[in-house]
Write a structure and sequence with these properties.
Layout: H1 2-29, H2 31-37, H3 45-72, H4 78-107, H5 113-141
Length: 147
């Protein structure tokens, strides 16, 4: 089960890292374009670019944490494995919350693409949930280094 958890964390971490890098680029170089896509706002294009940049930094950091966790899980003892289970559980919860938001927007009359996004988010949340479950079981069974 650690192999599946490593796969989920690696794929999710890579996706978050790439998405974060794209958001950082958009924030630095395309703030005006992002601002033009939004309804009339009180804030200016630089503020929209700054928000995209900050979100990109956060997403990239989350990706790095997932990739590092995928590399270390199972090798460093049961506490690291238990911590990885908590991390996977947090991401599963976050993805479920985003799926609910997308489904709510679709039910409110939004684009049908939100339904596809809801399905994709639920699939990812299920994968993270299964990874969290497997990691938590492995943390109990893994002989760890003394703390």
């Amino acid at each position: 089960m650690l192999g599946f958890a490593r796969l989920v964390l690696s794929v999710g971490g890579t996706a978050a890292l790439v998405s974060g890098a794209l958001l950082i680029g958009l924030g630095l170089f395309a703030g005006a374009w992002l601002h033009a896509l939004l309804p009339p706002l009180v804030i200016d294009a630089r503020a929209v670019g700054g928000a995209a940049f900050a979100l990109g930094i956060f997403a990239a950091a989350a990706g790095v944490v997932q990739l590092a966790t995928a590399a270390w899980v199972g090798r460093e003892g049961r506490w690291v494995t238990a911590s990885a289970a908590v991390l996977a559980g947090i991401f599963a919860s976050l993805l479920v919350a985003c799926a609910v938001a997308a489904a709510t927007e679709a039910a409110r009359g939004g684009s049908a693409w939100f339904l596809g996004g809801t399905l994709a988010l639920l699939i990812a949340a299920t994968a993270y949930g299964a990874a969290a479950w497997g990691l938590s079981r492995a943390s109990v069974r893994t002989p760890g280094r003394p703390s």
